[in-house]
Design goal:
It is built from 16 helices and 19 strands. Helix 1 packs parallel to helix 9, helix 4 crosses helix 8 and helix 6 crosses helix 8. It has three domains: 166 residues, FAD/NAD(P)-binding domain, CATH 3.50.50.60; 118 residues, no CATH class; 121 residues, Guanine Nucleotide Dissociation Inhibitor, domain 2 (2-Layer Sandwich). The chain is 35% helix and 20% strand.
Amino acid sequence: MRQKVLVIGAGIGGLTSGALLAKHGMEVLVLEASSEFGGSAGKFKRKSYLFPVGATLGMGLEENGIHERIFRYLGKPFPLPPLETVMEMVHPEATYVFMKDRNCHVDGIIRHFPEHEKSIRNFYRELYKTASIIRTLMDPLPVLPPTTIAEWANLFRSVRLQHIRLLPLFNQTLGQRLKHHHLDKLTPFCTMLDGLLIDSMQTGNKHVSYLLAAVALDIYHEGAYYVPGGLYQFADLMAKSIQENGGVLKKRRTVTKLEYSEGIWLATDQRGNTYEATDVVLNVPIHQLPVILEPNMIDKLKKPLRNGLKTPTWTTLTLYMAIDESILDAPLPPFRQISTGSGDSLTEGEHFFVSASRPGDSLRAPDGFQTVTVSTHSQAQLWNTKEQYDARREILTERMLSAISQVIPHFREAIVHLETGAPKGWERYTGRPNGYVGGFPQTLDNALFNSISHRSGLPGVYVCGDHIFPGGGTIGVAASGLHVARSISGSRLV
């Protein structure tokens, strides 16, 4: 049988691997359970309003950014101007502005803490230098943790003399570096950083891997983008590329069983249709694997992956709203964080990300209206019973709307449409058990060499997505999809 690739799940990771392999000349079939491509970066419509499901802020489109490289390889460039002002970060004590220009950004932060100028400048100088060294690894993009001789060889080929400077920082947290710079007691500053980290790294400064935190805090300066319509554009572009290169995509196909016999994988969907493949890409939440695979196959998975199956992550409550601009004093900016809590309390509606369509973005809303998504982290165990579920949804919705109204006068009066995306909704529409989103917190226990490899441990089966190295966000899942495509094709591709 010639090499045939079956991609299960058309999120950004699965579409990345499928598009790259189809472009490489391989036979590719993509099965998607829902009626939309993109997974957590997908979309849905309500009347004349279009809402992004989850992810909203575009990243990786700068020159040699991960998405820019992939789209260029596919022959589908996606040029956009970067945001010079990335977002406002509204905290109880101050409103900070994240600027693309690194010097302007640091100067703006220092204006809030002038007595700590030297320490803050030294901290950012170290952080930006660390990130710049790590970025030199983005071109070869070695796999972590390496599990084959080829992956170890690629890692060693990627290492340069300057990377030795990273070794003392390898097992440090961002919190330890803040302490080194005498900033760990500067609570408002640390909380501002935590607001950025909880959205990208799923944890705060005390526990996050410093090396990953450095990249996460620096990458906005490389380029952050407003994507007209939303990030579903990435998914649609790659789906189109798969079709143009002979691949096939099928929506509303939920794989219920995956079996292996004599070197061939056989997938069965909810309709009883079967599909044969030599290689399988699982772009599904790893907590779904026990539903798809027999227990004897689960036992053969690599240990970190098996452990991950039993590990919960954050869930979320998301508000999807449409607002009448004419009632507000000014249109909403594209991106804004609002925090009412501090320290470890940046969850449960005390910290959330607000994304709004730009005025005139007719793909998302009619003229004079904006669509808005608001999301907060929540602990899955707080949604266990129907009573808890209903109460938690009401509490968090009111908590976030109240906080927004403190920042934006007349916001409630401007709402013309409101619905919630609670954990069961996420489970139903994106296939994420318990509504788990975002992947694992990038702590020292979960990151880098302790992360989950894209190699499942089963012959010809690969995993990608936000639980797999290098982690969440469209950049992370695209990188995991690229690693899968490289392993299946035996080629560097991009």
